[in-house]
Structure to design on (609 residues):
């Protein structure tokens, strides 16, 4: 019953591992075949050694030399097949590691914004760094688990054919030793889960600290963060101590059992040898096979432990790969290369967790329009962009591109024709040219895009120009320069529709002045939709759509909205729409962050109010 329960649990572990499809069947079969041969050759060595002793004690010198020669051949074959098994094992690790990396990468591309709420970044990093390696080693553990058990059975059978009493004693030893070590490993694994969880929390903690390092220094958060670190370390320490206690208890019980049974075995064999029941060669063979059985049992338990521990890694990777976005966004099969850039939203609504975000949104963007989406924070501007980018699906309504529902387009066609520049762009830790190469490797087109974005001259001043290596997230250039590189990368896509998500947020005043000119240049070849809170950019739009609490409250030109939309007028001066004041009686507070101190944020006609 014990063995049935044991193998049933490991069958479940192995089945979950195979479900990841991380194993190469040919390589796995090669591992099993080579393991079968090298373990078989190794198992025969004590038997051949016993035949050598038997020949010597019988005075058969030629027979002894013959079996010595056989022993050498078997040993060479054992080493050769063992070497091939190691190669197959290494190939399996590489295959599984690369295969799972690809699977996780493809999964991360498709997840939604709720992914990191369920799986923290720290845990994900640990999964990518350690779990994948552990899973790659699962092939070898499975082969060891299977063949070590078969070797144990073979040892018992061989000893049984020579001495029933010794076989029974060794069988009792193997059973109790398995129970002791299995229970100890279960306890060890139980606390290992908690140490792993503490490691995930530590990685996530460090990721947050690095992400907000400037705030940590500015607000003197060191002491409070140290307290949080101490809590994480304390949880790790408690779990690790219990883990070590389980390991020590297991090893002590095992050693006591091993030496007790070994002493009994010697007493039994000496008695049987004195009675003439067994010969000297059989005495040596039984003792040797007992040592082999202990080694095989150790291999079996170690493999079982490895499978059990790795099952946690399998579970963690499975959770990543089986994560289902709350809204599954699927692409169609329509391959349409001639996109004009006409975008229509018809009665589009969006609810997230049953909370209405966008309500009955309808508007049309014609080719080469420059449309500004404006409104106070929380109005739904970003969610509207998420729908257009197909990061989410509308709860109701349709979005059409050139009169075709966007669900019908293939991923490649749609993403090639809709590009975005975010207010916090991500730049890879590589050269400027390599960052642009992701979109287009044509050097002349890269330079032209950078000229349009107004960043070419700056790049030329760098010591290595376009080959300058940007640190992580372009930390060695200013936020404005990083933003303009991102805009150049967006322009380089040749997408028909460009989405600009508040791209002037990180720009200095001088660089921000380049954006209106940039809009005038790219509107000749692209349709532009932008989220902005800059009055100067609103004036550049051919059409402005004003959002409030998820609804369109007004749309039109700057001049028209200034006359008839109170909310829009308030956006021009950053004053709440509920303020019961006219434009000419507005008094802005004289603070370092006010628009009076930053005239670039104030409309031209208001700067002398």
């Amino acid at each position: 019953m014990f063995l049935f329960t044991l193998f049933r649990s490991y069958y479940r572990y192995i089945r979950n591992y195979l479900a990841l499809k991380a194993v190469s069947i040919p390589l796995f079969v090669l591992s099993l075949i080579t393991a079968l041969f090298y373990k078989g050759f190794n198992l025969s060595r004590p038997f051949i050694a016993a035949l050598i002793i038997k020949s010597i004690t019988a005075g058969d010198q030629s027979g002894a030399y013959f079996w010595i020669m056989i022993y050498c051949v078997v040993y060479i074959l054992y080493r050769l097949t063992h070497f091939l098994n190691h190669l197959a094992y290494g190939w399996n690790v590489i295959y599984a590691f690369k295969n799972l990396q690809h699977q996780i990468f493809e999964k991360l591309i498709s997840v939604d914004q709720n992914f990191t709420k369920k799986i923290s970044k720290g845990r994900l990093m640990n999964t990518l760094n350690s779990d994948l390696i552990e899973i790659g080693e699962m092939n070898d553990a499975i082969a060891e688990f299977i063949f070590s058990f078969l070797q144990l059975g073979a040892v018992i059978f061989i000893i049984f054919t020579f001495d029933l009493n010794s076989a029974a004693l060794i069988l009792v030893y193997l059973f109790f030793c398995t129970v002791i070590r299995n229970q100890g490993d279960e306890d060890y694994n139980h606390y290992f889960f908690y140490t792993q969880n503490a490691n995930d929390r530590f990685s996530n903690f460090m990721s947050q600290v690095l992400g907000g390092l400037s705030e940590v220094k500015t607000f003197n958060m060191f002491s409070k963060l140290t307290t949080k670190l101490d809590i994480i370390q304390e949880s790790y320490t408690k779990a690790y101590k219990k883990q070590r206690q389980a390991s020590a208890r297991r090893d002590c019980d095992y050693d006591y059992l091993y030496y007790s049974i070994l002493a009994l075995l010697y007493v039994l064999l000496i008695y049987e040898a004195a009675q003439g029941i067994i010969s000297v060669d059989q005495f040596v063979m039984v003792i040797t096979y007992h040592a082999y059985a202990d080694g095989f049992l150790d291999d079996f338990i170690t493999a079982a432990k490895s499978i059990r521990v790795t099952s946690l890694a399998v579970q963690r990777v499975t959770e990543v790969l089986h994560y289902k976005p709350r809204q599954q966004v699927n692409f169609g099969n329509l391959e349409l290369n001639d996109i004009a850039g006409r975008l229509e939203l018809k009665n589009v609504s969006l609810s997230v967790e049953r909370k209405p975000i966008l309500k009955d949104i309808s508007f049309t963007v014609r080719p080469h329009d420059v449309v500004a989406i404006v409104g106070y924070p929380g109005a739904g501007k970003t969610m509207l962009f998420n729908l257009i980018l197909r990061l989410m699906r509308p709860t109701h309504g349709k979005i059409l591109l050139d009169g075709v529902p966007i669900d019908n387009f293939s991923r490649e066609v749609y993403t090639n024709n809709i590009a975005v520049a975010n207010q916090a762009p991500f730049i890879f830790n590589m050269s400027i040219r390599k960052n642009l190469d992701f979109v287009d490797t044509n050097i002349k087109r890269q330079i032209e895009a950078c000229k349009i974005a107004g960043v070419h001259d700056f790049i030329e001043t760098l010591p290595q120009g376009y080959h300058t290596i940007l640190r992580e997230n372009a930390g060695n250039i200013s936020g404005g320069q990083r933003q303009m590189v991102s805009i150049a990368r967006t322009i380089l896509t040749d997408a028909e529709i460009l989405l600009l998500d508040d791209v002037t947020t990180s720009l200095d005043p001088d660089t921000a002045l380049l954006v209106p000119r940039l809009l005038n240049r790219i509107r000749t070849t692209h349709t532009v939709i932008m989220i902005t809170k800059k009055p100067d950019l609103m004036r550049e739009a051919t059409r402005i759509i004003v959002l409030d609490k998820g609804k369109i409250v007004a749309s039109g030109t700057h001049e028209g909205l200034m006359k008839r939309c109170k909310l829009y007028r308030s956006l021009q001066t950053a004053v709440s729409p509920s303020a019961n004041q006219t434009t000419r009686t507005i008094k802005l507070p004289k603070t370092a962050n006010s628009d009076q101190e930053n005239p670039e944020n104030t409309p031209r006609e208001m700067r002398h109010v």
